[in-house]
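We modelled the chain as a single entity of 145 amino acids. Its sequence is:
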Amino acid sequence: MRARIDEVGRRPLGVSIRVYKFLSSEHALQDIRQRRIKISEIHDLNDPFELIPCDLSDPLKRKAVLSTRDQLSGNRGLVCFASAWNNPVLWAHYSDKHRGICLGLDVKDEVVMRIKYSEQRIPWREPDLEFMKEILWTKFARLEV
């Protein structure tokens, strides 16, 4: 059962939403057989600017952020989903040039974070939890699909 979105655009906690994962046929069938979705390692992501949407014009800050991203790459990863299945750009990029499979998954709303797309890099500020979350959930707007 799909939940209705309330007037402020939120669903009640614990409600499932459907997200979509685009894969090659080979990887989709493997994921179905193994009942799992592969977690992408940070250093294997197709966007070289992943996790660095902030202003890094200061060489010391750039070094610190890149070093942190490299450390996270050793034992952390992420899984990206789409909110719709019918986007031809996603089919082209992530489903083996339209020959793959798109899996629809129902997940708890509270475990999914929406990406914020920004035209500008995030201004640097002293790192705290909110700044780290902003870095994690922000991508360059030209990548919005």
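As a brief sanity check on the tokenised model: Residues 1-9 have pLDDT under 50 and may be disordered. The radius of gyration is 17 Å.
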